[in-house]
Specification:
Helices cover about 30% and strands about 5% of the residues. The chain is built from three helices and two strands, in the order E-E-H-H-H. It has a two-stranded antiparallel ribbon with strand order 1-2. The radius of gyration is 14 Å and the shape is globular.
């Protein structure tokens, strides 16, 4: 569970949030300022906290309307590719201006 902060929000400890909670810390390797207050999602397979890029990639590969998300390692395993292949596709979609990765 999260610990209390002085501003009343729960600080992230890497897990234990419901879908209504927000993670004030960035787990993302994404650009600063992108989705500063997004609902915290967890990988449906391994329960690891997800980055904005992982959430976007799940939507790109699985279905834009999905509510079930996966981390890069689980996506790579599901699609029988290497993690670096997923990372390269994320970089490609960002360069192409895909709105999921903004």
């Amino acid at each position: 569970m999260g610990r209390e902060r002085t501003d009343g929000q729960r600080a992230c400890t890497g897990g234990g949030y419901s879908s209504e909670d927000y993670c004030p810390e960035s787990h993302a390797q994404s650009s600063p300022g992108s989705q500063a207050r997004r609902p915290l999602e967890h990988c449906s397979r391994c329960r690891r906290a997800l980055t904005a890029d992982e959430t976007a990639m799940t939507k790109k590969l699985v279905n834009r309307g999905t509510t079930v998300y996966y981390c890069m390692d689980c996506l790579a395993e599901m699609f029988d590719v290497e993690r670096k292949d997923i990372e390269e596709k994320i970089a490609y979609y960002k360069r192409m201006g895909c709105t999921l990765f903004q």
